[in-house]
TrEMBL record:
Keyword Membrane: yes
Gene3D superfamilies per UniProt: MFS general substrate transporter like domains
Bilayer disposition of the protein: Multi-pass membrane protein
Record protein name field: MFS-type transporter SLC18B1
One MF annotation (Gene Ontology) recorded for this entry: transmembrane transporter activity
Lineage, broadest ranks: Eukaryota, Metazoa, Ecdysozoa, Arthropoda, Crustacea
Pfam family, one: MFS_1
Amino acid sequence: MHKRHPPSPGAQRCPSPLPGLYLFVSTSLYVVANFFWGWLAERSRLPFALIAPCLLFSSLGLLLLAPSPLLGLEPSKWLLGLGLSVEEVFFGGAFTPCYKVMLDASIARGLDDSLTTQAFVSSMLQTMYTMGVAVGPVSGGALIDAYGFPVMTTVLAFITMVVGLLVTVKAFVRHGCCRDAALAASNNCAPWKRRWNYESIGVKS
């Protein structure tokens, strides 16, 4: 006679719809906010000034997710939703201007300002992003298994914050170089354009 095993306690519980709701809301906010970030990045004379604060706010959202042990807050559904939403919204603001920064740097180093260069830069950006998507769950899962979810989000927030501070320094440095040339600001501070601006006003770079 076949012996029927009792169902496990986990199998008796219906899955909560909250994770799906969190993902739906945060992803929707990311999509809507990206229209604004794209508009702002296109008009920004200093993309680093947009990337830096978005990285810092994104790190704050990561700290709220678990929440981080450093905050001394009790875990809650609302805190998880708030942290996920903040992280998603400001991640878009940090990621969207990266294409323009990479394109300017590539042309400054000698690549042609052509559709081929744009396609090359776009493919490289997406390749790096996809590598992060592949490596992130593996490294994050290892941290969760070893130390728990709150520690993992804290480490990720710390890394994001450090990068945000480095980009802040870069923004101040680039702002100083823009201020040196009278016409550089109108040309987004691209180095090859800045060189032309110096020559146009009779100053050797």
